[in-house]
Amino acid sequence: MSAITIKDIAKICNVGISTVSRAINDDPGINKNTQERILKVIEEYHYVPNNSARNLKMTESNTIALLIKGIDNQFFQGMLKIYEAELKKIEYSFLIHAIGEDQDDASVALELTKEKRLKGIIFLGGLMRYSKEKLSMLGIPYVLCTVAVNMEQPRHNSLSVSINDEKESYKAVDYLCKKGHRKIAIITGKQNDYAVGKLRLDGYKRALQDNGIQYDSGLVRYMKSDLAEYSVANGYQVTKELIESGVECTAIYAISDLMALGVYKAVFEAGKRIPEDYSVMGFDGLEVAKYFHPSLTTMEQPCSQMVKHSIELLMEAINGETEEKQMILDAALQERDSVAEIVN
Amino acid sequence: MSAITIKDIAKICNVGISTVSRAINDDPGINKNTQERILKVIEEYHYVPNNSARNLKMTESNTIALLIKGIDNQFFQGMLKIYEAELKKIEYSFLIHAIGEDQDDASVALELTKEKRLKGIIFLGGLMRYSKEKLSMLGIPYVLCTVAVNMEQPRHNSLSVSINDEKESYKAVDYLCKKGHRKIAIITGKQNDYAVGKLRLDGYKRALQDNGIQYDSGLVRYMKSDLAEYSVANGYQVTKELIESGVECTAIYAISDLMALGVYKAVFEAGKRIPEDYSVMGFDGLEVAKYFHPSLTTMEQPCSQMVKHSIELLMEAINGETEEKQMILDAALQERDSVAEIVN
DNA sequence: TTGAAAGCGCTAACAA
DNA sequence: TTGTTAGCGCTTTCAA
Q: From the first residue on, what is the mean pLDDT of each consecutive set of 10 residues in chain B (344 residues)?
């Protein structure tokens, strides 16, 4: 059926195929008239070059890839937009590829690198625990952006940009403590989450300790594993159970803004007010959190910074300037209207 | 540098390259022992076949593609998830590809079809106005899902699944009217939007007319083109201006749920209540809308249905069973707590 | 059950 | 400025 190739175009135009190739690729050494004539025929016949053939032949491309694990995560959605804007500014072409939840990041990266002759890769999200060795097989520079890694065993990975989840979580909880809260519930990752959820829980614990508050496991609530991770529904369900359990608290800290909206709902349904009855805190700094009512106090991740730095780092690595660098950026506490001060 | 190929593996294993190819592709005509031996070497050397070469050589694949225009649209996000789940159930492998806002759907489709030897395509979202001719060049079946098309000039496109935006919007506004509202503001698409925004506005107008309500252009508000389309921020800004303008209304109908959250915020900031002072209605049926406070009354699009039918249609077309069918599905009014009845 | 060889459609020397 | 030609790495006949 379709199958119109460069050869056909060459025949139609009465030229060699390399001339057609030159026309397509705007090669300097081609007669502008010839080019125009060929391009017209190409247009007319709706000829589209086969990328597979192209990629196969080309010894190198100027393409970098952005690989996202967790495309359904709203936080990454936001980053994606920034990436799109920023990547347009550099001299490389780029490709955005989502990795399925069940796929292995490193394998996908490997395949894509071969297929597209990539110059570099930025990994957004995901866990990079089991694939270090495989990743080193890539043979091209890569940057891990917001990839969960346990801080206790520092990565050997060359390049990364992230926040310190433990520390930022500490800041959030410490803020709550300084506001006079002593019974602070946390809604954290799944019970078996040893990445982000664990780190943010660690920060919670340390903040409590530093503020002389006894740790109470009854105030630690885990996401439901049968509901979508970090989702509104999850925050709602967990909070509902928390409130119904009768465990007392004056503040609820959800480790994602979306879950915080679920917290809101559960609190309101219980006939309580925010922040008068319960103070609520989130994490991420999604734009939408400003529009919650009351607007959500949250730890805002430095998305723009992370995006820009990760691209910079990759560029440096491609140019052979940087081999290893771990950038840990600071999140910013956004004080809004969901947290009240408690006066004892 | 990297560049370990099938040839290398063949050499290492002391077999012909076709034997390696057979091992990789689990060809029935290969000695299991040989295969195992080769696979082990492949594993050891981290060999990954080059997809470009593969795609180039193969005369056909069993791949279908899902092309999304507007990956940042939360409504499509939700659909995406359903697609992922449903596509896993069929005997084809699939690939999800996002089309940039500035790219032409048809061109991308054409390229991808050639490159990956696609069997079929599902287009999710976008406008299919200028590319009909190009699309027919594809040479493979395709289904348009939720692709905005003007109902007045029915498409010649073979296969599509969608809702009737005009009609569903009519239902929403009619509901509001039946609840006694006579001053209903609408927040619709950009002023120059002739797709979804226009259709939903048309439905609004017709509902007003059928309910004997005078059309008032002061109640028609357009999205800001300098803010993200259908976004919370947009809904907020527009509502704020609406309220500040002093134009009276008892209900505000936003053509997306996200915008409705912006409406909430603006209403609350003005010191008003929902639904006592303003009734609010949305459109889409995002899961998150249930968690607004009060929970949002909205027109819920039949996402699961649309996904399933679009896949079915494509399968039928690939099997040559269906050549042309336009499915128009019904949306469902979700009555929740954001609309009050007005008693005169 | 295997290997040799012919391309898939393109780019990039190299000649002309 | 152009055409000829040799592969890129793989799958797939066709013989062996």
A: 84 95 94 95 94 92 93 90 94 92 90 95 82 80 84 65 96 98 98 92 98 97 96 98 97 98 98 98 97 97 98 96 93 98 86
Looking only at the bridges linking them, the beta strands covering B297-300 and B332-334 are antiparallel
B54 CA vs C6 C1’ separation (Å): 16
Residue A338 lies in a domain: no
Interchain contact, A46 vs B110, CB within 8 Å: yes
Task: Please report which helix (H) or strand (E) contains residue B309, including its range.
Answer: helix B303-318
Q: Is the CB of A15 under 7 A from strand D?
A: yes
* CA distance linking residue A94 with residue B77, whole number of Å: 22
Q: How many Cα neighbours within 13 Å face the side chain of A323?
A: 3
User: Which range marks the domain in which residue B112 is found?
Assistant: 63-164+303-330
**What size, in residues, is chain A?**
344
* CATH number of the domain bearing residue A117: 3.40.50.2300
Instruction: Classify residue A152: in a domain, yes or no.
Output: yes
Token look-up 């730890």 returns A299
C-alpha B135/C-alpha B142 separation (Å) is: 9
Are B282 and B203 members of one domain?
yes
Contacts of A74 in chain B (CB under 8 A): 74
Q: Is B151 left (phi over 0), alpha (psi -120 to 50) or beta?
A: alpha
| Nearest protein residue to the C1' atom of D3, measured from CA | A16
Written as six digits, the tokens of A20 are 């057609």
Q: How far is A5 from chain B (nearest CA, A)?
A: 10
Question: Domain check: are A47 and A67 in the same one?
Answer: no
Q: What is the pTM of this model?
A: 0.92
Please enumerate in sequence order all residues whose Cβ is within 8 A of that of B136, keeping only pairs 6 or more positions apart, or say none: none
Residues A96 and A152 placed together within one structural domain of the fold: yes
- Cβ <8 Å between B2 and A137: yes
Chain B nearest-CA distance from A329, in A, is 25
For residue B295, list chain A residues with Cβ-Cβ distance below 8 A.
265
At a CB cut-off of 8 Å and minimum separation 6, what does A321 contact?
Answer: none
- Is residue A252 helix, strand or coil? strand
Nearest by CB to residue B77, choosing from A2, A72, A114, is A72
Measuring from the CA of residue B28 to each C1' atom, give the nucleotide at the shortest distance. C1
Separation of CA B112 and C1' C11 in angstroms? 20
pLDDT tops 50 at residue A288? yes
Give the containing element (helix H, strand E) for B69: strand B63-69
Cα–Cα distance measured from residue B339 to residue B344, given in angstroms and rounded to the nearest whole number: 16
In angstroms, the CA A242 to CA A269 distance is 13
B/e letters for A237-254, b = 16+ CB within 10 Å, e = fewer, are: bbbbebbeeeeebbbbbb
Q: Among A45, A48, A116, which would you mutate to test the B interface (most chain B Cβ atoms within 10 Å of its Cβ)?
A: A48
* Residues B80 and B204 grouped into a single domain: no
Q: How far is B65 from chain A (nearest CA, A)?
A: 14
Of all residues in chain A, the one with the smallest CA distance to B118 is: A2
Residue nearest to nucleotide C4 (CA to C1'): B16
Q: Is the peptide bond before B294 cis (omega within 30 degrees of 0)?
A: yes
Tens digit of pLDDT for each residue in A37-49? 999 999 999 999 9
Tokens encoding B174: 């009619």
